[in-house]
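Bumping with the actual sequence this time:
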Amino acid sequence: MKEDDLKDLKVQTQFTEEELKLWYKNFLEDYPNGIVTKDEFKSEYTKFFPYGDASSFVDHIFRTFDKNNDGVMNYKEFIVALSLTAKGTPQQKLRWAFAIYDIDNSGQIDVEEMAEIFKAIEKLNTGPSDGVSPMEKAKSVLKEMDVDSDGQISIEEFIQGINRCPSLLKPLDMEQ
């Protein structure tokens, strides 16, 4: 790893220099070509959900980590994502959760995007658990969070909504 890259990652992550070097070594052992493809990421991630279908949910997770949208995750994208999920602040994790829902990266979440994520979570957990469709859930959550009634949720509305109702993070299995 180049010295400049190491310095940048020390600023961008919560990891020490020693941890970054160790993670880099392990990353290259697992991915000698220096990248993780979506299929490789999906293969690893789905091991944690052997009874559900994690594929569509993993696509959304991968999308948030692949910052340059080139279809692969390099070490820098990987370690920044790992730092966020393992050591990020509650605020950083909320912003990441928002990015998962904001499928078109517009800065707003609409009911279709929310329903898509709820559907992916449902598949991940082997089907509906409460008998409420993903679209019905999405409409209910949108109604709860959409303070300005414009039919979309901004990052500010999302954070305020989670602060009012932390159970909305439950589908993402995140703690605030």
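The tokens above came from a reply further down the thread. The chain is about 60% helix and 5% strand.
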